[in-house]
Amino acid sequence: MVERNSKSKKFIDNLLNFQDVKDLELCDDQGVKVSTHTYDVLNISINKIKEKYIGLEEATEKVDFFAITVGIIMHDISKSSIKRNEENLSHSQMMIKNPEYIISEVYEVLNFIEGQVGYTLIKEVRENIAHIVQSHHGKWGKVQPETEEANIVYLADMESAKYHRINPIQANDILKYSVKGLGLTEIEKKLNCSATVIKDRIRRAKKELNLKTFAELLEVYKEKGRVPIGDKFFVLRSEETKKLKKFVDKQGFYNLFMKNPLMEYMIDDKIFEK
Question: What domain range is 25 assigned to?
Answer without folding.
Answer: 6-166+251-270
